[in-house]
Amino acid sequence: MLTVLSGGTGTPKLLQGLARLVGMGKISVIVNTAEDVEVSGLKVTPDLDTVMYTLAGIVNEETWYGIRGDTFTCHEMLKQLGEPELLRIGDRDRAVKLRRTLGLKQGKPLSEVTQELCEQLGVRASVLPMSDDRVQTRVDTEAGTMQFHEFWVRRRAADKVKDVSFEGVEEAKPAPGVLEAIKTAKAIIIGPSNPVTSIGPILAIEDIREEIIRNRERVVAVSPIVGSAAVSGPAGELMRGLGYRVNPLGVAKMYRGIIGTLVLDWSDRGRARAVEEFGINAAFADLLMPNIASRVRLAREVLGIARIR
Ligand code: GDP
Predict the structure, then answer these.
(1) Are 148 and 109 in a shared domain?
(2) Are 264 and 258 in contact (CB under 8 A)?
(3) Does the C-beta of 288 come closer than 6 Å to ligand 1?
(4) What distance in Å separates the CA atoms of residue 233 and residue 9, rounded to the nearest whole number?
(5) Same structural domain for residues 156 and 220?
(6) Could you tell me the CATH number of the domain that includes residue 78?
(7) What predicted TM-score, i.e. pTM, was given to this entire model?
């Protein structure tokens, strides 16, 4: 009934609210996989894990990464043994990643292993990787071209961005269920995720982009930018590097031709007319979601804007 496009921080907050209001069973989530990376031999797919853990009620809400209350014994030991461990992976979190890697080694596609993990974690929503094919975000900076994690985790977005590309995206096909989820949804919600590196790769898959455009009138995006800054993360640096202004108009420009409605924060209400000049309806809500009450409240407003409730 409801299909949500997601990265791994802003949209999961909204998903908590949506799941409370409509129930997990009525939600499909199409998740970015272009930040997937191998760490100590394990397939790490950060956004899929965060979405799964969020819906399973076990996500670490301080970092929107990993499992709440996890321990790091294995991580510490691996470091001692000289493994670089670019990402700090907890013990329980590692078990999930190990289980995924074993499934993939048996020849199962990522979408099938994800479905199994969801069943085992009690997640009734349909969590779909955008693709079973490998797509990798590359950030081209003044210090050279690097993987997204190198840019963000290791170098803290310190390098000036020149371009962003998604290796493998031309050949990538949507994972099973993705196009159906878009076609059959009452509303398609592009959550408040990084428009460049979280939503960008999903929309860069041609078949997905075309299906979204066909259903454009039912597509509602929630801005991850309030005022002139991202709420968190490197979206501002990335948008600026690609020549977009870091404000809701920059978001509108990126989503022009793709979405029907953009939800802006009330504090940006002066931008309504400029958003509408992009052929996008402007709607307003309180976009900051520091706690569960604000997540439910925003979810309710978004459902209203999408005419679900
Ligand atoms: P990533 O995969 O960890 O990069 O996470 P996402 O792309 O899903 O989320 C990052 C984006 O979420 C950033 O651009 C933030 O501005 C946005 N974000 C985080 N918290 C909030 C919030 O409370 N409200 C809104 N509107 N956006 C948020």
Answers:
(1) no
(2) no
(3) yes
(4) 9
(5) no
(6) 1.10.8.240
(7) 0.98
Atom of ligand 1 nearest to the CA of 7: 8
What is the pLDDT at residue 86?
A: 84
Q: What are phi and psi of 3, to 5 degrees?
A: -120, 130
Lookup result for tokens 């196009």: 179
CA distance 200 to 148: 13
Q: What would the pLDDT profile of 35-65 be if each residue is shown by its tens digit?
A: 999 999 999 999 999 999 999 999 999 999 9
Cα 63 to Cα 36: distance, rounded to the nearest angstrom: 17
Q: 251: CA distance to ligand 1 center in Å? A: 13
Give the residue whose CA is nearest to atom 19 of ligand 1: 10
Give the residue carrying structure tokens 């609210």.
17
The structure tokens 């992976």 sit at 89
Number of domains, the chain: 3
CB of 90 closer than 6 A to ligand 1?
A: no
Q: How far apart are the C-alpha atoms of 175 and 7, rounded to whole Å?
A: 16
Interatomic CA distance for residues 271 and 210, integer angstroms: 28
Q: Which domain does 117 fall in, by range?
A: 37-129
